[in-house]
Amino acid sequence: MTDPAAGNEALLEQQAARESSARTYPRHLPHAIREASGVTVTDMDGEEYYDCLAGAGTLALGHNHPRVVEAMERVLAEDRPLHTLDITTPVKERFVDTLFDSLPDEFADSARVQFCSPAGTDAVEAALKLVKTATGNRSVLGFQGGYHGMTNGALSLMGDTDPKENVPGLMPDVHHLPYPYEYRCPFGVGGDECHELAARYVERTLDDPESGITEPAGMVVELVQGEGGAIPAPDDWTREVRRMTRERDIPLVVDEIQTGLGRTGELYAFEHADIVPDAVTLSKAIGGSLPLSVVVYDESLDVWEPGAHAGTFRGNQLAMAAGIATIEHVLEHDLDDHAARMGERLRGHLDATERAHDAVGDVRGRGLMLGVELVDPAGESDACGRYPANPDLADAVREACFDRGLILELGGRHGSVVRFLPPLVVSPSDVDAVGSIFADAVEAAIEDADADGRREVAA
């Protein structure tokens, strides 16, 4: 029987004895959470942390926001149904109203919505089925560095090959195109030339009769790659991709599962480039911290037969109520603008850390979706003149941050990018504290690495 007063160590030991070896976060964030409020969590030993992971970007309003809690309590107090499959309710209709109000009119006015099973990866699966059904085609275009989830089709789109090792039966006919990762450009050039070449490569590939790619059913893209390392797509590149897909009748699916609802400094990442996609996948923030996912798409794609896509838990009424509260709060308080301002403030701290240390190679991202790529200055530069990735240092920085009360996660090529995803309600003083802890952690991790190197040389 679990002791409710047990400390971190006891609960972690119990978790390790009973849970799958596939568990991830407890291995490098070794604590058990007792309570949470706003941007902080407190563990079973009473230690408090700034949470810049925030449920992998799920907690737009932070932990236990009063407006979200009140909305959920109201559903329970009024004996509303909690589980309705896809049967509608007043809560569901209000959720759709609120969601569509958050989208640009040009997109929302001709949109349809499909409620999916609860995870973001389920929305990606639904979007893949949608565009394949609408076009009659089977091949799908994705991008190097992309991350769209861990189910079959979503995993097939992933750029990282490690999670796909020894996984049988992945979706065939997925083609990965170069993403405009300007710090480590796939074409070995820098600046605007990188995204210009990337766009030109995509267009030539689409027009090449011997490219090996059959007529595409759709293109799926993140406009800020999250797990791929907080890499923002340049707006000019995004506009070019929209142009070429529209001209060739290729549905463009924008994955907004992590970027959506204000995180990048606009309500939706595609708004930075002022484009209108054919479909958008949404989850995380739109459920107000509870499981919910949808695909919103242009009505021209709506050729499904009844029952063509289903899912038992697509009628999560508590999540819809929490989602209404979250979306309304974001809209009423202009939290997209706040995210842009706080992102600039945090980036100022991160840029200062970059200037102080050669091992900090790049600071990038948009809004409150930022990343810091750590490198090895003693290594040989690549074709772009960049030092090699330094995953060991990134891991040490994450550990040093955790020891100082800051929860962060890694991503990017070789796991060398420290990622920041704080709640959108983060305050200026919170941002300053996070930036200070990170700077101290980087300095300590570099000093420890240098000391280890000196000991190895002496030995």
TrEMBL record:
Cofactor or coenzyme needed: pyridoxal 5'-phosphate
Taxonomic lineage from the root: Archaea, Methanobacteriati, Methanobacteriota, Stenosarchaea group, Halobacteria
Q: Transferase: present as a keyword of the record? A: yes
Going by the UniProt record, its keywords in alphabetical order are: Aminotransferase, Pyridoxal phosphate, Transferase
Q: Name one GO molecular function term.
A: pyridoxal phosphate binding
Q: Name its species.
A: Haloferax volcanii
Q: Which family does it belong to?
A: Belongs to the class-III pyridoxal-phosphate-dependent aminotransferase family.
Protein name as it appears in the record = Diaminobutyrate--2-oxoglutarate transaminase
Q: Which PANTHER family match?
A: DIAMINOBUTYRATE--2-OXOGLUTARATE AMINOTRANSFERASE (PTHR43552)
InterPro entries assigned to the protein according to its UniProt record, in alphabetical order:
Aminotrans_3, Aminotrans_3_PPA_site, Dat, PyrdxlP-dep_Trfase, PyrdxlP-dep_Trfase_major, PyrdxlP-dep_Trfase_small
For this protein, the Enzyme Commission number is: 2.6.1.76
